């Protein structure tokens, strides 16, 4: 099979320089014609690339030209074709978010890492939590809450003291951010097919922002979150350095 590679890069000078070097060495095709997309940047750029190529069949192979690079492979200009041929593929299903704001407008977005609700004012948010249309918590007073996929569980979720979830597990993490009441409540593990709904209590007094990865909407009053199984993001990793290994390693650092 002829390897048709599309090189995409973040705006960072180091990523732009890497893209120029890679294109000079391996050539370049438009992403619509590629059978492999190589993303040069950090984790944020990888998320942007996955969102931007959602309608394309080509898998994405990331090379770290950013900071942490959890979703990326090590950068090297040599042996790229061999690495791509040997790479292992992971499938990630994103979360769908449907948010209703105080003006009655509905907003939709997808999240590969997490959907989060965050207080937008000086007072803590008050949230009601329902799972599969059954109320599970009448009032959570907190700085916010989030629902994370396994792939996103080492990101904001982990910083908020949520659990790291193994890749391939049919589980979502619902994690509170600085919970005040119930005191120190850190959340719950839910089946991946669960539908989670947050209702914002006292939204005028305690405004809340909803964010799906980097896309955010202000003044929400209700947010519904579910796994979007029909969308399958394909990410490639070097053998022995896939998401499963990274998730395990992250817990011992």
UniProtKB/TrEMBL annotation:
GO terms for biological process: NAD+ metabolic process; NADP+ biosynthetic process. Coiled coil: none annotated. Keywords: Kinase, NAD, NADP, Signal, Transferase. It comes from the Bacteria. The keyword Transferase applies. The keyword Calcium does not apply. It comes from Phaeobacter porticola. It catalyses: NAD(+) + ATP = ADP + NADP(+) + H(+). InterPro entries: ATP-NAD_kinase_N, ATP-NAD_kinase_PpnK-typ_C, NAD/diacylglycerol_kinase_sf, NADK. Residues 1-20 form the signal peptide. GO terms for molecular function: ATP binding; NAD binding; NAD+ kinase activity. This is Putative ATP-NAD kinase.
